[in-house]
């Protein structure tokens, strides 16, 4: 699931410590690597950025994102319904559905709803984000990679508001790879928008696989997580694992890079079988809820890169950056990389009107 600009989270005031950076802010001082950035206001007061003659259409971008998100969630729902007991992933869907059902039944979910086939946006996600921001590893981090989902929107805000570099992927990697945002690229009036998918596309600096970057902390969304083992389940699309694998390939992270998740207390489970986890599943070191911080001391090995033999042709065809990477490695090594088994790609669900 992708984060939205319509989230109902209450964000704290902009950090006054970094306000002086913006006193003399003008478009000419923005860190643009190509032609100057121009801003236009259309008839509906939508801000559109043009660079190299390309107009950024907020409404069109968001409409396409929501459409693709809906198709993906419908596909996931269908896939979950077709799982059988012989499928090695069937047990994951049982746990996911139980957590999603519980969150809806107890009304501990926030927009977008229903939470099924999403990284669920949970009540008090902003308080869990505050707990996360109090971590020593967060305070010491210069660059934080944060997932693009709704419950971590406050984490993205606090990252920028603390003067840190924010690395976030385009939703489902469908339009690109990662984008980098920094508070110096923004103004007090745009920092909130920069925490949304539209804002990332509008204000972020896209990076490629050749970028020399060091990520000090990874924040990841979860559907369910075991506080005793650090075992984690996402929504079932595998993008967190792919993003982690690509960062390993880039040398941006290693085994020592902390992985943190923020969840509701009701997303804590004790029945994720560690012996059934796959080699690319990413465990978490720290769990933050609105009430507690849990250090898992996980012994589950972290993925070492991208496992091409697990990546289906269908998934590969969806993600351009992965196709480019595979072609690059094959050219450099002169050897063809393996492919995983074919699969029917996961789906999506519809958002309720607000």
TrEMBL record:
Coiled coil: none annotated. Residues 330-354 are annotated as: Disordered. Pfam families: 5-FTHF_cyc-lig (PF01812). One of its GO terms (cellular component) is cytoplasm. It comes from the Eukaryota. InterPro entries: FTHF_cligase, FTHF_cligase-like_sf, NagB/RpiA_transferase-like. This is 5-formyltetrahydrofolate cyclo-ligase-like protein COG0212. It comes from Heracleum sosnowskyi.
């Amino acid at each position: 699931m992708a984060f939205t600009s319509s989230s109902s989270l209450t964000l704290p005031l902009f950090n006054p410590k970094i306000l002086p950076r913006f006193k003399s802010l003008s478009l000419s001082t923005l860190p643009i690597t190509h032609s100057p950035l121009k801003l236009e206001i259309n008839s509906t007061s939508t801000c559109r950025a043009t660079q190299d003659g390309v107009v950024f259409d907020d409404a069109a971008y968001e409409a396409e994102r929501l459409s693709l998100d809906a198709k993906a969630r419908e596909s996931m729902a269908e896939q979950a319904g077709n799982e059988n007991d012989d499928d090695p992933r069937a047990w994951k869907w049982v746990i996911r559905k139980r957590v999603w059902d519980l969150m809806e039944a107890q009304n501990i979910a926030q927009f977008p709803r229903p939470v099924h086939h999403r990284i669920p946006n949970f009540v008090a996600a902003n308080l869990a984000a505050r707990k996360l921001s109090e971590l020593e590893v967060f305070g010491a981090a210069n660059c934080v990679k944060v997932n693009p989902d709704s419950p971590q929107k406050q984490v993205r805000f606090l990252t920028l508001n603390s003067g840190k570099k924010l690395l976030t992927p385009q939703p489902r990697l469908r339009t690109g790879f990662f984008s980098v945002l920094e508070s110096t690229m923004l103004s007090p009036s745009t920092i909130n928008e920069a925490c949304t998918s539209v804002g990332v596309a509008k204000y972020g600096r896209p990076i490629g696989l050749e970028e020399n970057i060091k990520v000090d902390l990874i924040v990841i969304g979860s559907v369910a997580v075991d506080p005793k083992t650090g075992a984690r389940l996402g929504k079932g699309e595998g993008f967190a694992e792919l993003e982690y694998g690509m960062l390993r390939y880039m040398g941006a992270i290693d085994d020592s890079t902390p992985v943190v998740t923020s969840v509701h207390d009701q997303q804590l489970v004790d029945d994720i079988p560690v012996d059934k986890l796959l080699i690319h599943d990413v465990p978490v070191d720290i769990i933050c809820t609105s009430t507690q911080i849990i250090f898992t001391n996980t012994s589950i090995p972290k993925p070492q890169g991208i496992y091409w033999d697990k990546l289906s042709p269908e998934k590969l065809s969806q993600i351009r950056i992965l196709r480019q990477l595979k072609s690059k490695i094959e050219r450099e090594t002169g050897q063809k990389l393996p492919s995983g088994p074919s699969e029917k790609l996961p789906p999506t669900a519809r958002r309720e009107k607000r």
